[in-house]
Amino acid sequence: MRARILSPTDDGRTTFHRDGVVAVDATGRIRWVGPAADHEGAISPDGGAPAVPVIDIRPLVVLPGLVDLHAHLPQLPNAGLGAGLDLLAWLRRYIFPLEQRFADEADAAALAPAVFRALASVGTTTVLAYGAVYAASMHEAFRAAERHGIRAILGKVMMDRITYDEEIEPSTILERSMRESEELCGRWHGAADGRLGYAVTPRFALSCTAEMLRASADLAERTGAWWQTHVSEDPGEIAEVGRLFPEARDYVDVYDRAGGLGPRTVLAHAVHLTDRELTRLVDTDTRVAHCPASNLFLASGIMPLARFLGAGLGIGLGSDVAGGPDPSMFSVMRVGAYAQNARRTLLGESEPSLGPLDWIRMGTLAGARALGLADRIGSIEAGKEADLIAVDAGLTAPVRHADLGAPQHEPIDDDPADIASRLIFRPHPEMVRAAWVRGRTLEGPGLAAGD
Ligand SMILES: [Zn+2]
Question: Which superfamily does CATH assign the domain made up of 66-370 to?
C-alpha cells in the first residue's frame, strides 16, 4: 500500500516516508518498505498506472500495530467506573462481581468478540490479557480471537485466596486451576500458526498462595508459555503482601522465590519498586507492562519511568482495562507523558523526558520486545509480519483540523514527531481507519472492511 509510513526500527531510529510503500506478500509478511519512488514495478516512474496494484491510502499514516501488554478481557464493560477507590476496594466492588459473569459461557461468548473488535478499532493488534477464572470462558475467548484475527496471548486467572472462585478448599482450587490452565495451554499456546499464545496467569500475590505461584511458574517453564501477574501497584497492596509473605524480602522476591522471573514473564505496574527489586528484574531480564492511565485512575502512583528505563528494565505499555478506563494505547501514551511531566515538575527530576516518537516506540516495538516477538512484529521492516494500522492524523475533535484553517506549522505531514504528537495529544475517536494482522484486515467499529 502507498501511504505515509512511520515506524521505529530495530536499530533504535525512527523511519518516516512521507510518500512510502509497504509491500506485503501473500503470507502476510512485509516484503519491502521504502519511498514510493524507489518501489520498482509497483509505482511507475512517470506516474502512470503501477505494474502491480498498490492501494493508495495517502494521506493516512501507516504505523506498526499497537501492542497492549496488559488488559483484562472481562472488565471492559466496567471501564470508567470506580474512580477514587483504591485497588482492593475497586476489585471487590466493581471487578470481582463482573468477572463472575464469565461463569456463564454464553456471556463470555457474547462479550469476547466485542472486546477484540474494540481493541482493533483503537489500533491494538497484539494484546496480552487476563480472562476470568472459568476455563470454559477462556476457550470462548480464544475461539473469538482465532476468528477475529487479532494477535492475542491470553490466560485464565488463577486465584486460591482473596478470590471469587466458589471452591472452599484452597488445595482443591489449586489442583483444578492447574489442570485447567495446563489444558488451555495445551490447546491454544501457539495456535493459529503462532498468532495465539498462552500466558499462565496467577492474578497477584494477594490472590495466590506460594504453592500456586510456584506451580504456575513451573507450568510456564515446562510449556514455554508466558507467565503474567501484577507487582507493586499500590502501597496498600504492597503492605499486605509483606504481611502474607513474611519470608520474602520484598514483593518481587515473592515471585522470585516462586521461580517466576525471567524473559517470558510480564509483570504489570511495577510502580513502587525498591532499588533491589529493580536490579533483580533487570538481572533476570523480566519484562514490565507500564500502565500509567490505570495507575492514575486508581491513584496507585507514578512510575519513575526514565530511571527504570535507564537501569535497563524492559518496559512496554498496557491499558490495564478496566483499571485503566480507556483501551486506546494512544490514550495510555498521553496519560503517561502527562504523568512523567508531573514527576519532573513536582519532584525536579532531571532525566530527559520522552518525546512523542519515544512513546510510539514504547507502544509498538518495545511492547513486541517485552513479549520476545520483536523478530516478528513491532516495526515496519522487511521480513516482519504485517501487523499494521492506518490512522488519520488530520482528524481532530470536535472539528477536522483542516476546518481550523491553515496550520501554523505547515504541514505536520512532513514531520514524524509532529504526527506522533498529534495522534497522542489530539486524538479523534475514529482516527484509526484500518488495522491488519499478518496483512489480514481486522474488523472493528469504524474500521474499513476488506483486505
Ligand atoms: Zn491488571
Answer: Metal-dependent hydrolases (3.20.20.140)
